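Q: Sequence in, structure out?
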Amino acid sequence: MQLVVPSLTLLPLVLNIAHVLVSGQVLEKSRSVWVEQGLVRGKIYNIDGRHIQIFRGIPYAEPPLGNLRFAKPVKKARWHQELSAVEYGPPCIQFMDFHRYDKFSADNMRRQSEDCLYLNVFSPYDHEDESKTFPIIVWIHGGSFLAGSADTGIDMELSFLNTKIGDKIEGNYGIWDQVMALQWIQSNIKQFGGDPSRVTLMGESAGGAACSLLALSPKTEGLAQQAIIMSGSVTAGWAIHRHGTPSWSLENLVSYLKCEKTITGAEYAADVVGDEHTPDELAQKKCNYQNEIVPCLGDDQTSSQQLSCIRKSLNFSSSLFRKALAFELGVSKMVVDGDLVPLSGAELVRQYARIPIMTGVARKEWAHKKPQFYNLHRKSSLTAEEAGESVFRIVEGSFHDTSPVKLSNSTLHLVANASFVRYIDDPSNTYETSRVVSALQTMEADIEFVAPCQREIDGYIYNNVTVYAYSFDYIPKSPIYEEEKKTFSLFGHTPVTITRKDQTLQDRKLEAFHGLDHAFIFSKGYSSNFEIRPFTTDDENLAKILTNMITNFAKNGDPSTRRFTWPMFSGNKTVEHISINLPPKIIQGELHWPQPKFWNVEADLISRHIAAGDFDTSSDPDADLTNEERVQLSAYRRAWWALWLLVAVLAIVIWGIVIYAVVSKGTSPRNKPYDNIVITR
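A: Exactly. Output:
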């Protein structure tokens, strides 16, 4: 099989070699093939007795420079000499430094460039029959649409592709890059042994959301036949912008470039600058950490003039500037453009779902978030008010993004109160920090991953499209070590490697978290700097099960293995998904039920029908209610009117008694004080 990633990697179906590092490859010979643009030369390796051909750094679009900046990609022109595809192309400009000290890709990350639209192809090679073709997996990396590249992992029989990081200013350009890469695959992948009629999209996190969109967009029809969507969904609030002005809009970016707005408040400055930059280096920066201010941005310019200026003159060479922008503006989201992204949220899925998918989430996506993420690390216990404030911040920051309209604070507080009761409240009225943080992790994961995944599943089921759903629940018995680089003035600002064991919250077991499944597909860690040590026999067995499920789905459209039958998720019979664990097992009901019901039904109902002013009162507010909800609402209304009627009757009776008492007293003979007075003349 082949796999492709935007940053794209193509991988003819041999995912079970995923744990073989490049250092274990034996070079045998070179091989050249013809593509639309010309001749390209790669290498053939012997990996565990299998011949694998590897082509790195094949350009699929013109460099997005000059007038091609912030524009749809342009197909790569022909080249007239043999192209050497033996080295990775440069990664795209990174807006976060997730992979700065990456074990596998740190060296290549230093080559960041806007000239980055390349793909890599890894596929089986049979010298006796070069006409053999294999299914293709197109791998789309994650990274919040702000970071990542095709080489942030180990080599295997895949194809990875790079796309521009960020979809803004304001036209989904990174996603358009992926569309062009898929078109290139259709035209050329057969030359590498790939079958263009068996293309499986596969992505995780932001890559999962992009994969989710590509499986639905009318612009990609025929470019892929199925999709594997891991911990990401186009229905998530962080994936597609829904209301207000996008933070990465042209107007907003220009205001920062001209220093009309200042990047990063004091609370972010330390994170942006870090310890690796000396005061002298910072003193040389212009406003907002820029190396130089864009000279052609003036006053009273039209948006087209501003865009033309930015295309020609914007300098992205300052990593501090890029990182500060990311801290200030947040996750770069896709936007509804009526073209590539015709709709947002569940409406997009219900209208355009067409190809089979395998999709799921980790048991507790944000289980590795530390108390520092919630600014609670300095407290051993909280008050109910402090816990409630943390809940509100998540509702305001995560749930609000899923709404098609801007919600009032009163509505958000109402949703937060309901969320507090569901996740935090406790009869003992004690709020230990570890318990609250654990609940916040679950709540945030439910909003951002679990509920969106279930929404997407529901949309596919509505269209009678095949869905295989899972929860990744396996947690290794060995410690998970996190390695990072820190700089200290004591060592002259030289990076020092720090390794620490991933710690769990007090009295709580670690649960499968966001991206942990990578350890069992691509490497032995959550990322190249997270590692499970030692990687046990159980870990190896789980890796075999998971990669077999993925490859079987890519080959046959069914992830079942010889020993385990994976049932389809169907709305017409008992709802089932599977737990990926040792051993895997079938689970009745929706993913992580009942949490998706709360966010997709109850919280949504509150935000649409209870918050005054947040919906169109000219329409029937009860139109979307179920029969059971209508009956309950009708009963509440009858009880309400009965209560008011009782109050009115009691008021009339009381007033009657008061009036009668007053009149009776006024007509009594005892109340005539002058009856005993006799007047004589």
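Residues 627-667 form the longest helix (41 residues).
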